[in-house]
Amino acid sequence: MSNRTDARGRRPGGPDTRGDILRAARESFASNGFSGTSMRGVARGAGVDAALVHHYFDSKDALFVEAMALPVDPRQVAATVLDGPREEIGVRIVTVFLGVWESPDGQQRMKAFLRSVVSSDQVAQLMRDGISRLILAPVSEVIGGNDARLRVSLVASQLIGMALTRYLLELEPLASAPVQTLIDRIAPVLQQYLTD
């Protein structure tokens, strides 16, 4: 006995349907951003009926949050950045940041993340809250001082600007510069923000 999804050529749920939906969602968010991605489009990409996407994820926001799970835990990032001599924190920050971006899976997820943040106020607020709580607050606490949050935010602005220019705009020569060159050039700037 066939059902409607079979008649339309869509497959019913299977052993890795949820994984297929998440992969299709990651691809769509990376290519189209948050506003350009639809639940129906993700369903098409995964080869399933849209109702099945709604079965696993009750909203596009919920799908985004799970699909865009960062390749590293932000709490581990903060711990890595803070583990070591204070005078080397700039090097650790940019090394960890570029390490995430330079991995193929990390780059796809981070591109989707940036595109979605700039196209949706709701996603921007969600990410802002998460980043503030999981990374900016602990680093600011260790850095100390009245303007610690401002200095850590300046670091974030440098990293986000570099990511937009290198990975989204692909502006040369930054786009093809060796990672070690970027670390050597950016780390002292970040260090100055954090230790002055």
TrEMBL record:
Pfam annotation, one family: TetR_C_16
DNA-binding region: 38-57
Domain HTH tetR-type: 15-75
InterPro entries (UniProt xref): Homeodomain-like_sf, HTH-type_TetR-like_transc_reg, HTH_TetR, Tet_transcr_reg_TetR-rel_C_sf, TetR_C_16
Region Disordered, residue ranges: 1-20
Keywords: DNA-binding
UniProt-listed Gene3D superfamilies: Homeodomain-like, Tetracycline Repressor, domain 2
Protein name: TetR family transcriptional regulator
Species, as recorded: Kribbella lupini
